[in-house]
Design a protein that fits this description.
The chain has 151 residues and is α+β, with helices and mostly antiparallel strands. The protein has a single domain, classed as Aminopeptidase (3-Layer(aba) Sandwich). The chain is 32% helix and 17% strand. It has a two-stranded antiparallel ribbon. α3 packs antiparallel against α5. About 6% of the residues have low confidence.
């Protein structure tokens, strides 16, 4: 599965509608058409986030990208939460509240995937030593799914 499809599938699974079936909740299965209908630039967002990771409490560029994106979608955005976090709220009248979260940080690990968009970022750690950084835990995928929208 290409990254865009993986992101799109994550978006659909995160926002899937539950149906009451005999008192139990069941997830609907997204169709290929629904996966393909996800915002076409979500793959570009994923690649950008993967290529430009930031360590914990240093995610200023990452937070700014996500804040700008969800603000453009009509969300009320608060930045600087816990230093570099953001909160986005979309009011839609009375009723249930849906909360989604994502993590922004990458880890001090050298990427050896060979991907054309592999991270080559090097930063100074708390001890002043140069260290490579990458999204080894999938936070880049989580962020792209969090900020994606249906096309």
């Amino acid at each position: 599965m290409i990254p865009a499809r993986a992101v799109a599938l994550a978006v659909l699974m995160a926002t899937a509608t539950t149906l009451a079936q005999g008192g139990r909740a069941a997830w609907t299965t997204p169709t290929i058409a629904e996966v393909d209908a996800i915002d076409p630039d979500v793959e570009a967002l994923y690649i950008d986030l993967h290529r430009n990771p930031e360590l914990a409490f240093e995610e200023t560029e990452t937070a700014a990208k996500l804040a700008a994106r969800v603000k453009a979608l009509g969300f009320e955005v608060t930045t600087g939460v816990g230093r570099t976090g953001i909160v986005a709220v979309l009011e839609n009248g009375p009723g249930p509240t849906v909360m989604l979260r994502t993590e922004l940080d990458a880890l001090p690990v050298e990427e050896k995937t060979g991907l054309p968009f592999a991270s080559t970022v090097m930063v100074k750690n708390a001890n002043g030593q140069s260290t490579p950084v990458m999204h080894v835990c999938g936070h880049d995928l989580h962020m792209a799914a969090w900020a994606a929208r249906p096309a």
